[in-house]
């Protein structure tokens, strides 16, 4: 199937479609530095444009006919990580590399508009699971109504990326739309759990888990998928019970050259037993935690910006599973 990805980011979902044997023919991204990474990493062309300025006809005229319109609209307005902020604060945020701001909560509607204008065979939207919560129905439900009004059959799923072999946890809402027959019952083929330890190189002395209850530092094997990765390049549990960081003496990211030495932990580490300073995850480790291949990073992208691009991406293993679901549905349609 031929795929166009909107809100493509650096191409996490595109990796998944490519792994599943789909034909990525194009992508749309709003931020120039992210599109640059996409174009260095994927064979398909990523065009820098605001989706608000596009029509479904524009997509077809530029990329040709396609079977799947994929989207991962910005999630800031719906994410639990922003639960302490007001709606006005969340909808006005634009974490753009150039410091610009853009309202993002209404972009779900623009994706639905593009779908009904282009009328591809399938449409897919990925977002945080909280978008499916009833508190956000003012954003999601009009988009669902627009799709069903255009004749699409819908399937809404809450999926965990770690269930498909991702070494870090990521709970996501996936909306599937089909112009053909209704979606049948489907048992998602889950994979064995992959521990976070696979993401770290052999030269790392070990993974350290910082226990909140006693403020102590101790080495523990990481036998489970990594919890949430923060914007400062470490990981923490859903309730803040643990923080996973690495101790191997490396002070600079070997990929971007950015410093990895968190100075604010130095005195705390000395008090905890004289360990050398712990470091943040480096870029290649975070790529692995998101089941991504090695990324080509421009010299202009530092580690913090790289972490943000990776963190805002869809784990490819999750998209590959969604692609397999569409293949199964297409076979059902063919047999009907």
Question: Which descriptors apply to this entry?
Answer:
seven-stranded mixed beta sheet; globular; alpha/beta; five-stranded antiparallel beta sheet; Rossmann fold; 336 residues
Structural class: alpha/beta
What's the number of helices?
Answer: 10
CATH architecture identity of the largest domain: 3-Layer(aba) Sandwich
Q: What amount of the residues lies in strands?
A: 15-25%
The name CATH uses for the topology of the largest domain is: Rossmann fold
* Regions with little confidence, pLDDT below 50 for 5+ residues: 80-98
Strand order of the largest sheet: 3-2-1-4-5-7-6
- Over the alpha carbons, how many angstroms does the gyration radius reach? 21 Å
CATH class of the largest domain: Alpha Beta
Q: Profile the largest sheet.
A: 7 strands, mixed
CATH-level-4 superfamily name of the largest domain: Vaccinia Virus protein VP39
Mean pLDDT: 82
Q: Total domains, how many?
A: 2
Tell me, briefly, the overall form: globular
Could you give the order of the helices and strands?
EHEHEHEHHEHEEEEEEEHHHH
Tell how many strands the DSSP assignment holds.
12
Spatial gap, N to C terminus = 19 Å
Helices and strands, with pairings:
Layout: E1 2-6, H1 12-19, E2 23-29, H2 32-41, E3 46-48, H3 56-63, E4 68-71, H4 87-92, H5 107-118, E5 122-128, H6 137-149, E6 153-160, E7 171-178, E8 207-211, E9 217-219, E10 228-229, E11 235-236, E12 242-246, H7 266-271, H8 283-289, H9 303-311, H10 316-335
Parallel strand pairs: 1-2, 1-4, 2-3, 4-5
Antiparallel strand pairs: 5-7, 6-7, 8-9, 8-12, 10-11, 11-12
Helix pairs in contact: 1-10, 3-5, 5-6
């Amino acid at each position: 199937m031929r795929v166009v990805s909107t809100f493509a980011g650096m191409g996490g979902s595109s990796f998944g479609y490519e792994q599943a044997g789909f034909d990525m023919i194009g992508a749309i991204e709003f931020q120039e530095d992210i599109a640059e990474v996409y174009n260095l990493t994927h064979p398909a062309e990523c065009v820098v444009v605001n989706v608000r300025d596009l029509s479904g006809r524009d997509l077809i005229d530029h990329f040709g006919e396609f079977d799947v319109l994929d989207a991962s609209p910005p999630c800031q307005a719906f994410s639990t990580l922003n639960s302490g902020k007001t709606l006005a604060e969340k909808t006005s945020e634009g974490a753009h590399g150039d410091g610009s701001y853009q309202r993002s909560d209404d972009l779900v509607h623009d994706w639905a508009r593009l779908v009904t204008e282009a009328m591809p065979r399938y449409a897919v939207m990925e977002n945080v699971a909280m978008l499916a919560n009833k508190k956000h129905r003012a954003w999601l439900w009009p988009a669902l109504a627009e799709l069903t009004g255009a004749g699409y059959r819908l399937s809404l799923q809450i999926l965990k990326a770690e269930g498909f072999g991702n070494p870090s946890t990521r709970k996501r809402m996936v909306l599937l739309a089909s112009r053909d027959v209704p979606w049948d019952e489907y048992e998602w083929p889950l994979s064995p759990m992959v521990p976070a330890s696979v993401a770290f190189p052999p030269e790392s002395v070990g993974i350290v888990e910082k226990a909140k209850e006693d403020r102590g530092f101790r080495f523990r094997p990481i036998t489970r998928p990594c919890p949430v990765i923060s914007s400062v390049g470490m990981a923490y549990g859903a309730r803040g019970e643990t923080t996973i960081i690495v101790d191997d003496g490396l002070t600079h990211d070997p990929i971007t050259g950015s410093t990895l030495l968190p100075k604010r932990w130095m005195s705390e580490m000395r008090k905890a037993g004289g360990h050398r300073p712990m470091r943040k995850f480096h870029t290649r480790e975070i790529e692995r935690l998101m089941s991504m291949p090695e990324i080509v990073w421009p010299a202009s992208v530092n580690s913090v910006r790289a972490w943000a691009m990776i963190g805002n991406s869809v784990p490819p293993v999750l998209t590959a599973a969604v692609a397999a679901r569409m293949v199964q549905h297409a076979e059902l349609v063919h047999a009907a």
